[in-house]
Amino acid sequence: GAGVSQSPSNKVTEKGKDVELRCDPISGHTALYWYRQSLGQGLEFLIYFQGNSAPDKSGLPSDRFSAERTGGSVSTLTIQRTQQEDSAVYLCASSLLRDTATTNYGYTFGSGTRLTVV
Amino acid sequence: GESVGLHLPTLSVQEGDNSIINCAYSNSASDYFIWYKQESGKGPQFIIDIRSNMDKRQGQRVTVLLNKTVKHLSLQIAATQPGDSAVYFCAESYYGQNFVFGPGTRLSVLP
Hints:
Chain A is mainly beta. Chain A has strands spanning 5-7, 10-13, 19-24, 31-37, 44-50, 65-69, 75-79, 88-95, 108-109, 113-117.
């Protein structure tokens, strides 16, 4: 697609339930990132996928959080047994692997999924 | 490290004035920098980038300045307009991967 697509755009869930957030990166982008943004705050890194390499999970806040990326494209972020402090906007971004021919290899972000845990 | 749990500083400017948003980065080895703009309810969007072999880069109404000596980045917006109201993030990287984002600054344009 033309941009990074995230679904759903909004999700309200009850405390203790599991949720799945989906990210469709730009076709051909080998790198995919998940960030969390709490209200009025900055970007908190969660996890990074690069090609077939093992993902960098160093930002995941607890073992209730996991993510996978199938076929080097679509990614799913799963939060198990959601807590109220998980309420935030979850942003996905993708990028090309840097090469000398690329003038802009920054991230392209999706619009995010706003998760509210009640 | 990554930006976590910080309340955003706010910069208020009068419409038509110039805005300067500052950012301190952490890694002296970073060689590529980007400024992002995030409007309410949207994901961050690329504004302008600069490589470490440059001190200044200009776009349309925006200029980015890089001072590697003190690890400082700034974004200048000329003739600030109401549509410039947003949160602005700087991001640093080495070799264009795994960007580290600053805490963000909220720009508020006053009529």
